[in-house]
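Q: Entry one of two.
A:
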Amino acid sequence: AWVPFTYSLQARYLVKHDPQLSYAALAAILGLHMLGYSIFRGANGQKDAFRRNPNDPALSHLNFLQTKRGTKLLTSGWWGMARKINYTGDWIMGLTWCLVCGFGSIVPYFYAIYFAILLFHRSTRDDQMCQEKYGEDWETYKKIVPYKF
């Protein structure tokens, strides 16, 4: 019941605390947000397109690991950079919502801190489920794509 309040925390903080950020700082934050959005949407779009039609000629440049289960795990493109690259983009966007509040208080950064913990926990849980699901193929995959984020 408390989670929705974390989404408005920065706006509530800004009502009474103007960080007086420069246009350059705001532009940098916007650029960082756009980077996070590009990573998030690019990675999820690539995974979705590959799931829909892995034989699409537009995806022929992507490498993958053929698993014993018959599924394919992407090992290049966005997913060759990290196993949870989409989480990285998502967290960057959340961080930028905090950055617009400046550095006068840690309170607006609650969301970024909470979200980092949540994503780390989720990635650990996902890693365990994938280990059970793919077995030794998952170990091979982790050697090819060693980074979580």
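Q: Entry two of two.
A:
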Amino acid sequence: DGCMAEITPHLPQLHPFLLSQLTSQDSLPQLRCISAWALGRYASWTVTADDPSLVACSIEALVGRLLDRNKKVQVATCSALGVYVEVAGDLMTPYLEPVYRALMEALQLYRTRSILCLFDTLGVMADNIGA
């Protein structure tokens, strides 16, 4: 899994930083994209960590960026959300209502590539939650 073993000791400090870059109004779209990607990449650590609030914070941050005006940020957050769904499975149940609400709003906003990613994420949700 790439550098997972090497980066795991640093994730308790890195995770809050990534969340702050994703949610900051002042961060550049490129920073929001890479933050979303990294959060998705290390979703398995978040789900298995001893702190269940990490999943909640991550989902909240990703859902908050689903409606970003930048197309690349839309794709990155939608993809990361799909990874969280795959990794967390039924642990996503408490977050389904706000996630579905944001995805329905995104259906009105997204175009071409973003909408394909959104459909993929909805498919992943159908396959992995409540199965």
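A: Comment on entry two: The chain has a mean pLDDT of 93. The CA atoms of residues 82 and 122 lie 8 Å apart.
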